[in-house]
Design brief:
This protein has about 100 residues and is mainly α. The chain has 5 helices and no strands.
Length: about 100
């Protein structure tokens, strides 16, 4: 995900603000989502939208999201890992000029 975001930003496929907004939206959803499947579906739909807009560079990510397509409750530990990952993504994007 980091490499894809960096590449798409570097070549102006979308703006830094668009990426930060997407991260914010996913973070907000991740704070309250109940199941892995719900989170997976939410993120997968956004990736699908980006694939249609920018091409096939994001296909690899969607393969991994399908693994999480389980109607199991998200543990507090996993939720924190997800939020930490999103924060790392945010910091990487903020470094790009």
């Amino acid at each position: 995900m980091r490499g894809v975001n960096y590449g798409l930003l570097k070549y102006s496929a979308y703006t830094k603000n668009q990426v930060l907004l997407a991260i914010d939206e996913i973070e907000l959803f991740a704070r309250d989502v109940v199941t892995y499947a719900s989170l997976s579906f939410y993120v997968f739909e956004r990736i699908k939208m980006l694939q249609q807009k920018f091409g096939s560079e994001l296909i690899i990510i969607s393969k991994y999201l399908e693994i999480l397509n389980k109607e199991l409750p998200i543990s507090d530990f996993d939720r924190q890992l997800i939020l930490i990952h999103l924060e790392k993504q945010r910091k990487i994007v903020e470094l790009i000029k």
